[in-house]
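Reviewers asked in the last cycle whether our approach scales beyond single polypeptides. To address this, we selected a multi-component target totalling 630 residues and predicted its structure end to end. The input consisted of the following lines:
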Amino acid sequence: MGEFELIRRYFSPLNGQGRTDLLVLGPGDDCAIERVTPDHHLVFSVDTLVEGVHFPADYDAGRLGWRALAVAASDLAAMGARPVCFTLALTLPAADPSWLQGFSGGLARAARQFGLALAGGDTTRGPLTLSLQVHGEVPAGTALLRSGAGVGDLVCVSGVLGEAGAALDYLGVRRPSADQQVLLQRYHEPVPRLELGMALRAAATAAIDVSDGLVADLGHILEASGVGAELDPSAVPLSGAVCRLCGPERAMELALHGGDDYELCITISPESWDALPASVRTQLSIIGKVVDGQGVAGVDTSAGSSGYDHFGSET
Amino acid sequence: MGEFELIRRYFSPLNGQGRTDLLVLGPGDDCAIERVTPDHHLVFSVDTLVEGVHFPADYDAGRLGWRALAVAASDLAAMGARPVCFTLALTLPAADPSWLQGFSGGLARAARQFGLALAGGDTTRGPLTLSLQVHGEVPAGTALLRSGAGVGDLVCVSGVLGEAGAALDYLGVRRPSADQQVLLQRYHEPVPRLELGMALRAAATAAIDVSDGLVADLGHILEASGVGAELDPSAVPLSGAVCRLCGPERAMELALHGGDDYELCITISPESWDALPASVRTQLSIIGKVVDGQGVAGVDTSAGSSGYDHFGSET
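The resulting structure, written as structure tokens, was:
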């Protein structure tokens, strides 16, 4: 099966998903063509996943398809961008039909859910490697950057933290309990906080997605903004399932340092917080405040990350 | 050396190259941000190069940096797009300082020459693999597609063909002759026809870059346009160096089927041809015409491509 046949057979079903109204020309020519809404900017990020480094050698193809697009789309959420389209650079050792069927199925489910149209790509032979570039757009000047945090801002985080990190201990379990299933679902099928990111556009002063762990990722905001943060450990949102399975101490450690949760960590002024719709506030926990200085204080920052080679994320 | 340090040390020198006026936010945040000129469309393409598949294991790092960006930028030339910026997804087995120095140097030279700003990327550990995505822009509705060729159009090609394909026989030569040097230069440092592509925007009916060989790539235009072509073999532009080294018969075979030349093959109406500035016409040879039917006639189409695993190119 040649490259053209492979693309036609497995990836054509993705055509028509997502923001095709902005995709002037999709796959098949030398380039794709995208229209950007007037007075908007293009926002884009690329993420690479390598077999044996970012996912195990026998990882389920459908989960990989979902996960690869979810991880990439989480960077759009962190900018407050509306998803538009993506490209897939797929390097494969062989054209295995059942693997391709599973992978493109997971990818198509994610593309539909996140509103991302397949714009193009490149399929080559070699060690299994995926590079996905996601495109979104924001009204000019409204993107959420890492560099805008100011002294006095609140530090907030969405959802609960630590579930994906805790899941690493249960990846091989054959009959997971209900609590273990919560963790595994979170690990295998992360959901980027796209709607929340867009809702925070006019309000947050800085944002990042939690891929490497709360302390590490909040640290990127603080460094880019030239400030520090004082966290209230009792306010860090823990997972009930993780507390029951691992105990509250380990749950706190995972919430601070576990990766792969893909929640949003933001800073926001108290006035803007008060002005947020209640439906947005309920998705966020206030966990501390921005202070003069540098680094994270108030919690144990000595522990490293989860120790697993997580799915990387860097622009 | 961690990922952040690696990027700072080797790729920061690329900051400031190219169309930084359109790059609202470069590397370092969750995403990059690009402004698209009003009434223009974004044009983009991704190309992957895998060690041992698209380039030999000991390939010079500086040449690889140039070549990777040139091959990707050639797709912008084929659309008539003006280059803007690019992302680099770089997977490396190890952070070898001398390799990184050479690679980023070749990449920086190409970025400067082609006017492409480094917008972002992802650096991961694994088998040596590069995925470059190039961004350009065109006035809305003016991009050169593969699908516009019409019966009666002239078929034209830029420059001379076959030199890069002929170079494959001399890659290991220690003291290349002057003719061999011409071929090797062409192979190692291809120059995408960016200015020519832009000059053909309002004139050509279809365009493609010659990466897989003239007959194969013209075939893509014909298939997308639903037409055929009759070529005049005596009009196919041969390389003097290739004729002297390989004889005229082999030179013709390489001109028709050799890859990696990165010239442009276009179709254009006779009226538009006559209206082209002389400075543009002199860069092109008329090699045939578009006819009813399908496929390429008038030349030997039986030979395959060069047989070497060339640097791939597909959107």
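Residues 3-139 of chain A form a domain with the 60s Ribosomal Protein L30; Chain: A; fold (CATH 3.30.1330.10). We regard this as preliminary and will revisit it once experimental data from Aim 1 are available.
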